[in-house]
Write a structure and sequence with these properties.
The chain is 43% helix and 16% strand. The protein is an alpha+beta fold. The chain has a single domain, classed as 2-Layer Sandwich (BirA Bifunctional Protein, domain 2), CATH 3.30.930.20. It has a six-stranded antiparallel sheet. Helix 1 crosses helix 2 and helix 4 runs antiparallel to helix 7. The longest helix has 30 residues.
Length: 221
């Protein structure tokens, strides 16, 4: 089936889940999640996969093992797409009662990746390219975020021209839209695709300059 929008019933489902995040509510309304949230998200991801990579839909259950918040269910549905063989740089979409969110970049860097990231930021050629792209995204309404150090990383001067980028431990851009009529139409797919295309240069920079981690699996924690 082709994507035709996120029905209003899905957003209403999440409004109810925010008010009653319990197994009882989930069990009674699971069909709304399957039909009006997860189903449309899978359709959207599958249609965009040929251009943006293999899709993965996230589970609706929260990992509460190390959290003070023990509510069992996520109040949003997310999907991530990652181009095969590129090593780094992905795109993300999320639907909730608050509307639609799109993002792209990297959310976690292993130590070897972080080292390559900082060396590339400090480079006289690659660093300005990233800074220019980040500035352009900001001017287009994207929020630039990611985990950051409070201080300048060791080995780099505090007055470095790209010190703010050097402090990043991850780097991603996001945009959000409140619920509106187009969210229930196929137009939502066009919005997501157009937004993701704006992130192509950022993800290409990340893939070319950082790539996949070379650390063994037992050292990726």
């Amino acid at each position: 089936m082709t994507f035709s929008g996120f029905p209003d019933e899905g957003l209403v489902f999440y409004e109810g889940l925010e008010a009653d995040n319990s197994k009882t509510y989930w069990t009674q309304h699971r069909h709304l999640y399957d039909d009006h949230v997860r189903g449309p998200m899978q359709q959207l991801a599958d249609e965009l996969a040929p251009e943006f990579g293999t899709p993965k839909l996230f589970r609706p259950y929260r990992d509460v093992r190390f959290s003070h918040d023990k509510t069992p269910y996520k109040t949003h549905q997310g999907a991530v797409l990652h181009p095969d063989g590129r090593g780094l740089g992905s795109v993300y979409v999320q639907v909730s009662a608050d509307g639609l969110r799109v993002s792209g970049g990297c959310w976690r860097l292993q130590p070897d990746q972080l080292d390559r990231y900082r060396r590339a930021v400090a480079d006289d050629v690659q660093g300005p390219r990233l800074a220019t792209e980040v500035d352009q995204l900001s001017r287009r309404g994207w929020t630039i975020d990611g985990d950051r150090l409070i201080r300048t990383p060791r080995g780099y001067p505090a007055d470095h021209p790209r010190v703010e980028l050097l402090r990043h431990k991850s780097l991603h851009a996001s945009q959000e839209w409140e619920p509106t009529d187009w969210l229930q139409e196929r137009t939502a797919l066009d919005r997501v695709r157009d937004a993701w295309r704006q992130l192509t240069a950022l993800n290409t920079w990340l893939a070319d300059n950082i790539g996949a981690t070379t650390a063994p699996p037992d050292r990726r924690r």
